[in-house]
Amino acid sequence: MLAEDLELIPGRWIGSKHPCFVIAEIGQNHQGNIYTAKQLIETAKKCGADCVKFQKAYNGEKFNKAALARPYLSKHSWGRTYGEHKKYLEFSDEDFRELRNYAEKVIKIPFTASAMDSKSVSFLESMKVPFIKIGSGDVKNIPLIRQAAATNIPLVISTGMSDMEGVQEIYATVKQLHKKFILLHCVSAYPPPPREINLRVISEFQDRFPDVHIGYSGHECGIGVCLAAVTKGARVIERHITLDKNLKGNDHHCSLEPKEFKQMVEEIRTIEAALGQRQKRIQDSELPCIAKLGKTIVAATNLSKGTVLTPECVKIKVAEPKGLDPKEYEGRRLNRDVAEDESITTQCVQTL
């Protein structure tokens, strides 16, 4: 059973006859600054993204005390411990509502987020987001996936840090509740080496899970892999967006700056147009070239009326006016004299 079209956000469908859905993953590239977050929302809209996505977490729900107390001495740290670092970057519920209002009412772009813990699922459900993202960190968190699926809100699920058996368990879990979900092929490295990206997994997902749509979430440098994913049939593309790759933070260096993100969206749209249909025919755009350069048959020498055309009688050239195609002279007889190098047209011949 092939996947039915899925309305991921109101009025925006996912399916073979619809444009690829592009998610601008803002994540925590906002640096904990709501003004920067709003800049990224506006930038994503200008770049052609279909929606913006943040990450929602309650640190006490996502991490235990020991994890939050862990020293965090990275150059990307916003605090002495991991808890201080995460606290600096997390937006409050009120911030999220303000950002959603800014995105949807001011900038006119859909807003959603990843749910990083059970409380976050409930919060996003209360916000009535168009879809909930389940990140790769929760591929084994079947209770969270089941809770998210039970909301009956569409889900977009990344599959990094999982093998095929794990993906099959995710698929079976959600299918028990509904079929409004999308699986994203993903490799959770920042960035992954190209040899480990394995875009052919998209085809494998399509074969194993034909009744759901498949997409790709990328963390590689550049846009080429995402474009290739579209040619493999990815219906959703998710990429991190940043204002500057050199900013402090783990994700910036493998995110796309505005110029890159805009180019990616534009080239995705070009690829979609170029993929077209599985039908080989002469295109309208080819007609001028056919008229200018298409080969035709001409008389190899002066030919008399009544001559039966043979390979020795003709040559194949670009000629004016256009005559018979090279494959069409056999079984024909001239009904008038034709001079050497003159085009042999349909008016010059009759069928034997």
TrEMBL record:
SUPFAM superfamilies, A to Z: AFP III-like domain (SSF51269), Aldolase (SSF51569)
Ranges for domain AFP-like: 296-352
Protein name listed in UniProt: N-acetylneuraminate-9-phosphate synthase
UniProt-recorded Gene Ontology molecular function terms: N-acylneuraminate-9-phosphate synthase activity
Superkingdom of origin: Eukaryota
PANTHER family attached to this UniProt entry: N-ACETYLNEURAMINATE SYNTHASE, SIALIC ACID SYNTHASE
Pfam families per the UniProt record, alphabetical: NeuB
InterPro entries: AFP_Neu5c_C_sf (IPR036732), Aldolase_TIM (IPR013785), PseI-like (IPR051690), PseI/NeuA/B-like_N (IPR013132), SAF (IPR013974), SAF_AFP_Neu5Ac (IPR006190), SAF_PseI/NeuA/NeuB (IPR057736)
Keyword tags: Transferase
EC class of the enzyme, as a word: transferase
Gene3D superfamilies: Aldolase class I, Antifreeze-like/N-acetylneuraminic acid synthase C-terminal domain
Catalytic activity, EC: 2.5.1.57
Catalytically driven reaction(s): aldehydo-N-acetyl-D-mannosamine 6-phosphate + phosphoenolpyruvate + H2O = N-acetylneuraminate 9-phosphate + phosphate
GO biological process, one term: N-acetylneuraminate metabolic process
